[in-house]
Amino acid sequence: MKLELVQFLNTDSVVLPGLLYEPEKGSDEILIALHGNGSSGGFYSVELQNTFGIKLTGNGISYLTFTNTGGHLIQKFDRVIGEEKERLTIGAAYELIKDCISDIDGAINFAKSRGYKHIYLIGGSTGANKICVYNYYKEGNEIEKYILQSGGDDSGGYYSAVGDKKFRLTIQECSKKNEEGKARDFVPKYLHELPISYQSLYDQINPDGDYNIFPFYWQLNGIKIMEKDPWREIKSILKPTLVVYGDKDEFCYGKLQDCVELFKRAVAGKENFFFEIIQDTDHAYFGKRNELVEIVLEFLKKS
User: Fold this and answer.
1) By CB count within 10 A, which of 12, 134, 151, 241 is most buried?
2) What is the C-alpha to C-alpha distance for residues 201 and 183, in angstroms, rounded to an integer?
3) Under DSSP, is residue 274 helix (H, G, I), strand (E, B) or coil?
């Protein structure tokens, strides 16, 4: 196996760092990984990244993990255009989920520049949401297969944590600040304990926004808060797609089986979705990462 520290430009000319695992004999297949939100980045969870990298390269598939523009809470990135370099402050505190389109397209361009012809995409946690957003807005993209790993429900999760009154107050306050041109100001701590801008918090919790891909809480509790078609982005997926959860996923309200059943009903009749639940593990697949990678590898090897 060859391991290389790489960097590439997203399609907004922002420099993104990554780790590329490749088989010694080379390959024309690559799995690109999208990390989750919060303080995540492409270089964390070393055990998970190495498990993927070593197992995939041992079976003739390369693996790229990279830090996207939503990496870390607050992070400096360089935008390079020709001879000019601009320093940007981005990170999860400022990110909008549609920003992922530029990051994913940049990763695809990088993979193609290295000679890869078969490109697959895996997203963990918010990374799964990003795959769905990317697919919805980039119809006809070049990815061949998707893996949605532990897709989460941030909108319903916030509602569950703070209750109806505070949820609606937060939506109203964020919307107001965005309209006043204060979208990048940080919300007060009574609205969110971690540093986050009004634009990003609104993006994460808006029931009708791009972030709300997996409306588990709303449907489990019969709360008719959404105006957009629930599961809209999921229903638009036509490519072979693997959906994976740990049976103790802490972000599924203790009702993982019920959440998966909602998902299955949303795609009933579609033959391109495949579901796996890994027993005795959590959102991050602690203790079962080898099993996760085996399931992903089997899916990628299917014709």
Assistant:
1) 151
2) 10
3) strand
Residue 269 is assigned to a structural domain of this protein: yes
Which structural domain, as residue segments, surrounds residue 122? Answer: 2-153+216-221+228-301
Q: What is the pLDDT of residue 39?
A: 61
Q: Label residues 246-266 b or e (16+ Cβ within 10 Å = b).
A: beebebbbeebeebbebbeeb
Tell me the whole-structure pTM to 2 decimals: 0.96
- Cβ neighbour number for residue 212 with a 10 Å cutoff: 27
Q: Report the CATH number that the domain containing residue 82 is assigned in CATH.
A: 3.40.50.1820
The answer as to whether 185 is a domain residue is no
- What residue ranges of the chain have pLDDT lower than 50? none
Query: Rounded to an integer, what distance in angstroms lies between the CA atom of residue 107 and that of residue 42?
Result: 12
AA identity, residue 95:
E
In a domain, 48, yes or no: yes
Tell me which H or E stretch contains 34.
strand 29-34
Task: Name residues whose C-beta falls within 8 Å of residue 278's C-beta, 6 or more positions apart in sequence.
Answer: 244, 245, 246, 247, 285, 288, 291, 292, 295
Work out how many domains the chain is built from and give that number. Answer: 1
Q: What is the pLDDT at residue 135?
A: 98
